[in-house]
Amino acid sequence: MNTKESVVRLSQVTKRFGQSVAVDQLDLDIGEGSFFSLLGPSGCGKTTSLRMIAGFETPDEGDVFIRGQNVTRIVPHKRDFAMVFQNFALFPHMSVAENVAFGLKMTGVGKAEREQRALEALAMVRLPQFADRYPKQLSGGQQQRVAIARAIVMRPAVLLLDEPLGALDKNLREEMQVELRSLQQDLGIATVFVTHDQEEALTLSDTIAVMRDGRIEQSGSPSDVYERPVNRFVATFLGASNLLRGRILGTGKTARIDASGIAIPLGDATGKDGDEVEIAIRPERMSVQPQGAAGVPAVIKAIVYKGATVSLYCDASGEERVVFVPGGHPSLIGLKTGASVVLNFDPAHAVPLRSE
Amino acid sequence: MRGLLIALTGFSYVVVLLPILIVVVTAFSASEFFAFPPKGFSLRWFEAFFASDSMRGAFSRSLQIATIASILATVLGTMASIAIARRKGTLFNLVQGMFLAPLIFPAIVLGLSLLIFYKSIGGVPDFLGLVIAHSVLGLPFVVRSVTSSLLAVDPALEEAGQSLKASPVDVFIFIIAPLIWPGMLAGGIFAFILSLGELNTALFLTGPGVTTLPIEIFSYLQFQGGQLVIAAASAIQIFMIIAIVLIAERLIGLKRIVRSES
């Protein structure tokens, strides 16, 4: 089998807890140096998948490979990974330096070398001056950095991150996203990141896998998954979407949108003449035009000012439509709640969805 | 209200501590017979205590049994706690119940049961028999205090240890033990003190030449005079327990021993 490129591979992995299936015949392939995110709502099986890579859970079916070695039945401490836990899980009775050096101590690295490497790792997360402190004396963000240092000092084949930014407040979270990404790229370390935060996944990942009910709904680069969602779940979970109804025309290569009559290319979605199809358009891909222009007539229900963007909530003959307009955009001039407008979009940005 | 509370507290202290205090004070008496307040001060009864082969032997045997039994109880109790603390379900509730059972059953029943059991398997040396009995009695205290210490340890720490290449034994030595040792020590000290003063099972399990101090005191009271040797023996036990508690207090704080909580 060809596992040369892949650092972590899951093959047809299933995990059940009692009656419920947490992970359902999952296939994953994470390449060298790639930042791979498992994104999904709670209970979708993303954390269970991560824990099976670590060995904290054993699959009921299927196999887990790390660097080509089948580790399905191998205990966690003999697998080549390091992990950053949700609540950091720093050892409270050890100093920061001892925490970071702990893994090296367990693998038999000599005292001088492990102190040296622990300090280097702490320097990488910009905390060398905190080596002698204890975890309790650090802020959340600092503890986070220690947890990352403790993992990367091991130079593992794969770095597992279990919602590591969830415990931080918003500003710190964004700062850590940037740091985490540049650190990961500098080290070129394959990383599996579990999160329910779509923005985090978009910012950090090379590949996003959107999970639901133990299966991957779609995986691809952030722009792929965001711009070309395959179904309604992905279109609405990852960012907001306007969902339009349409009908497939003739040869099955195009669909016509009911409300506006615009024909759009069908792409990957398939069907026969007359089948109903759902079409997604991102709010920022829609535009607001004055009454009388071509498009779908709508009434503005609410205008929400968000600084960089302005969200317009509109009613188009009973359907709610959302439009994001850049702040200060000319089309905003004179717009008021209750105004009648026309909504339009470039057919190239309309994405026909597979039925679920 | 506040005055009543103080009065009640004071009364409780008097009821509990005064008799003990009287024994300790009379142990230093110079007179031949019990009298309070004692006449004169001497250490003659302590001398008499250590001069008696049977008393001295029983004292050192009690110390040996208490030491071995409390270590055994601590080791077994800690292992049991680790098994119990992380798991849920009827089976583990049952196991926990079994380990706590010696708290509920009268020790005299345990003594009789063990006597019959030892006989039925062809006899067990008296010393070993006592060690086993006292270990069983000490177990629930260790299980209780260690379990509550363990529950305060974040389970993610164990996984963090494993993720850093620590084997289960390493995880215990380097991560769990340093966090729960106050609970282990508290349980162990309780088991030690319990063994030192234990009479009920010892009544069944001691044999000729192999007695514990409480049994020796008990039979001395029944068959000989010289009550004040007993007072001295009691005083020695009390001093020892106070010393242990003080040392423990320095190490972990008395509250944790008394409450068996972390």
Largest beta sheet: strand ordering of chain A: 6-7-8-3-9-10
Outline the low-pLDDT stretches of chain A: none
Low-confidence stretches of chain B: none
Q: How many individual helices of chain B? A: 12
Instruction: Please state the second-level CATH architecture of the largest domain in chain B.
Output: Orthogonal Bundle
How is this structure best summarized?
The complex is a heterodimer of chains A (356) and B (262). Chain A is of the alpha+beta class and 356 residues long. Chain A has helices spanning 46-54, 96-106, 111-124, 140-152, 170-187, 198-204, 222-227, 232-237, and strands at 6-17, 20-31, 35-39, 61-66, 69-70, 81-84, 158-162, 190-195, 207-212, 215-220, 242-249, 254-257, 263-265, 276-281, 286-290, 296-305, 309-316, 319-326, 340-345, 351-353.
Write a structural description.
The complex is a heterodimer of chains A (356) and B (262). Chain A has two domains: 6-232, Rossmann fold (3-Layer(aba) Sandwich); 240-353, Nucleic acid-binding proteins (OB fold (Dihydrolipoamide Acetyltransferase, E2P)), CATH 2.40.50. Chain A has eight helices and 20 strands. Chain A has helices at 46-54, 96-106, 111-124, 140-152, 170-187, 198-204, 222-227, 232-237, and strands at residues 6-17, 20-31, 35-39, 61-66, 69-70, 81-84, 158-162, 190-195, 207-212, 215-220, 242-249, 254-257, 263-265, 276-281, 286-290, 296-305, 309-316, 319-326, 340-345, 351-353. In chain A, the strands form four sheets. In chain A, strands 6-7-8-3-9-10 form a six-stranded mixed beta sheet, sandwiched between helices. Chain A is globular, with a radius of gyration of 24 Å. The model of chain A has no long low-confidence stretch (mean pLDDT 89). With 262 residues, chain B is mostly helical. Chain B has helices at residues 2-27, 44-51, 53-85, 90-104, 107-120, 126-151, 155-163, 168-196, 200-205, 213-223, 227-252, 254-259. Chain A binds chain B through residues 54-56, 75-78, 81-83, 85-87, 89-93, 102-103, 106-107, 150-151, 154, 160, and chain B through 154, 156-157, 159-168, 170, 174-175, 178-179.
